[in-house]
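ESCALATION

Customer reports they have been waiting on this structure for their group meeting. Please prioritize. Original submission:
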Amino acid sequence: MANFPFQRLQADLAKLIAKTPAGQRLISEPELAKQMGVSRATLREAMRSFETQGVIRRRQGSGTYVVGKVPVIDAGLEKLESIETMARRMNLEITISDLNIEQFDADADSAKGLGVAEKTRLTRIRRVIRADRRPAAYLVDILPESFLKPSDLPSNFSGSVLDFLLARGDKLGISRAVVGATNAHADVAKPLEIQRDDVLLKFESQLFDLKNNVVDFSVSYFIPGYFHFHVNRRVGSS
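Update from on-call: job pushed to the front of the queue and completed.
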């Protein structure tokens, strides 16, 4: 029974969100906390579950908005596919924004991810994937400049490095990914139009060629509510 007041708070918030039109801003946190009779800290904790469901979204310096029903990309993790490929299969239209392509010298993290020496010249591609014009994911791909130069990408680059490499005819092997949850830091929160420290799903992946060289080190951040990933596994030795 100790959690009953908190559960009641979540139920009250659910009712408020349900009757608020999509795209409309909720009243400010101080006002809402006062209306609900709780502290701002307790209110934020209760609202976090709705954020992870993709029902509401906080925008830095603007407030908390109700999100309408969003298209969910459902995909298995057994086969590596681009978000664009998944979306096409489901007849969903997605776009990219905030595209940034640059060259830089490898720091410790990128050097480790690619298995190269620090200061190696690299190409970095950052962009936001939008579903129904709303930010859904922030993708970062880092590749050796010797493998991909910024000038190699076409002016109408779709946002998928994987699809570009496959179309170019590169012989790719396997991909290894570490999946977990993380809090959004400033560089990710701003383009995704969310608050710092909001919870995101994070994929950190290495893409190998047939000679077992890492040709792409990528970090992808997904806003909960837009993606449903699953894994199909065999039981025992069957």
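Sent to customer with the following note: The beta strands are 56-59, 63-66, 73-76, 94-105, 121-131, 134-144, 172-183, 199-209, 214-222, 227-230.
Escalation resolved.
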